[in-house]
Amino acid sequence: MSNESGVPSRARDVLAATWARGLVGVAAFLVLAEVLGRSGAISQSVLPLASTVLARAVGLAGNPRFLGDLAATIEAWAAGLAITVAVAVPCGLVLGSMPGVRTATHAVVEFLRPIPAVALIPLVALILGPGLRMNVTLIVYAAIWPVLFNTIYGVGDVDPVAKETLRAFGFGQLDVVRRVSLPAAAPFILTGIQMASSIAIILNIGTGVVTGRIDGNGIGAFIADANASGGNTALVLAAALWAGVLGLTVNGLLVWSGRRMLPWHRAYLGEQSLREMR
Amino acid sequence: MSRIAATALRLLGRWLVLAAGMGAWQAWASWRQSPFFPPPSAIAARMYHLWFSGPVSHLLLTPDATGNVLPSLGRVGGGLAIAIAAGLPLGLTLGRSAALSGYLDPILHFGRSLPAVALVTVFIVIFKIGTQMEVAFIAFGTIWPILLNTIDGARSVDRLQAETARAFRLSAGQRLTRLIVPATLPKFFAGLRISVSLSLVLMVIAELTGSSNGIGYEMNAASSGLDLTGLWAGIVLLGILGYVLNAAVLGIERHLLAWHRGARMLTN
């Protein structure tokens, strides 16, 4: 039994039940937060009402200043992620297929990776000055690791017989990478890009919160402003809510485009976005 | 003799690039006298003077180290401890109850995608600047990977093993300690590793935003005083802390999981 969309009706029932439960949970959470606030159990001067935050969030959708900051965050995210992929995937392919290079650079990587990118905010702000360049630099430093390690891991996972076969037919190293290693590693790379994507958003907002408006636009700068103008907690929470929506949307888009681009490895995708490769 | 030579060659191959890079940096920085990139020797000397030139009775730690580095570490430890103490039991409960996790799943996934860094000012309003704020902030930010991975792990308990445990009438407590917790631990540790590196990030953000001591506070002071060497010293220290914390979690994980693997083999 299947309906038009190809989903068996039984599975659709389960899906509907899941949605219903989730909605009940969200509604209960919001009502509870509202009651706690209105009854005075949580002082409204400390934490605003859920309804206030939601109203503010809706208001932000028509606020040109916020939309400009949202666009700035998306711009930094896109530029940062593009550079990250352009650098990390080729590096990962080289490191993954040449053990000698991997051994030689291992110490450098292990030396650089544990440095939290947010620790570089004051330094990069001094060196590069405010603006998109500084934001993108920080994003690339933080986001490069999951893509790099997932690429190395994915290349290591390639079936050696497939590689040998291609070599036996006279294909060169580059062809082997292009025709075997890259397609086989693609699902892993995509998982790495998903992780890098959320890191990029978090880093952009963190940079803005720490440095404020002087260092460029973005959701973080908006939050810093809201805080500077008398600690407007409802506005900060509303902006954070949109940041969460942005993260979920971007992740959903990545998963969706991955499924379209890599139909041959559907099982790998979305399996775990929290996997950390070593 | 050739074995020694081979080992030496391997060590050389392992460290040569790093050493060459450091050497090049040192030479370049000494030559150019760039204010932004002080030579590694200057950074190391600054780290020594700032933090590690204290009396032996204080494990060589200077007052600056005990006044800034230790509080930062304490906040990271406190936040992580709360995140584990809350996330592990909650995750086990939710992972074993399909109904409960059905109600809470959307909230939890949205909670994880909320960037904690955006909420640092809210935490300052609620908890006021100080250790309590940072601990709460770190706990809030680090609980999500622990919680969601624990749920995942508890869900993945082998069905056959669960049925067997029931057939042998293992008590709920026995099932928890013998079956569910061991099956959950690998996933839990995967989450914990993410949380540990996240905890440093959150600590730095909190201390850069509002704090009266700590590593991030020191870096802020160095930054506004245009003391680039001091800033670099903070960065390198955070890198070392990140490395040590990650290695520590990996060590604990290997130790615990090896024990569990052994125990499971015995019971099989």
Compile the SSE list and pairings.
The complex is a heterodimer of chains A (278) and B (268).
Chain A: H1 9-38, H2 50-60, H3 64-97, H4 99-112, H5 121-128, H6 132-156, H7 160-168, H8 173-211, H9 219-228, H10 233-261
Helix pairs in contact in A: 2-10, 3-4, 3-6, 3-8, 3-9, 5-6, 6-8, 7-8, 8-9, 8-10, 9-10
Chain B: H1 2-32, H2 40-52, H3 63-96, H4 98-113, H5 120-127, H6 131-155, H7 159-167, H8 172-209, H9 215-224, H10 228-267
Helix pairs in contact in B: 2-10, 3-4, 3-6, 3-8, 4-6, 5-6, 6-8, 8-9, 8-10, 9-10
Describe the protein's architecture and organization.
The complex is a heterodimer of chains A (278) and B (268). The longest helix of chain A is centred in the C-terminal third of the chain and has 39 residues, at 173-211. In chain A, 39% of the residues are buried. Chain A contains ten helices and no strands. By secondary structure, chain A is an all-alpha fold. Chain B has 268 residues and is mainly alpha-helical. Chain B has one domain (50-267): MetI-like fold, CATH 1.10.3720.10. Chain B has ten helices and no strands. In chain B, helix 4 packs across helix 6 (131-155), helix 8 (172-209) runs parallel beside helix 9 (215-224) and helix 9 (215-224) runs antiparallel to helix 10. The two termini of chain B are 46 Å apart.
Give the mean pLDDT of chain B.
Answer: 85
Beta content of chain A comes to under 5%
Which homologous superfamily in CATH is the superfamily of chain B?
Answer: MetI-like
What's the architecture of the largest domain in chain A in CATH terms? Orthogonal Bundle
Spatial gap, N to C terminus of chain B: 46 Å
CATH topology name of the largest domain in chain A? MetI-like fold
CATH class descriptor of the largest domain in chain A: Mainly Alpha
Please indicate the count of domains of chain B.
Answer: 1
Overall 3D form of chain A:
globular
CATH architecture of chain B: Orthogonal Bundle
* Helix run count of chain A: 10
Query: CATH homologous superfamily name of the largest domain in chain A?
Result: MetI-like
* CATH fold field value of chain B: MetI-like fold
User: What's the mean pLDDT score of chain A?
Assistant: 83
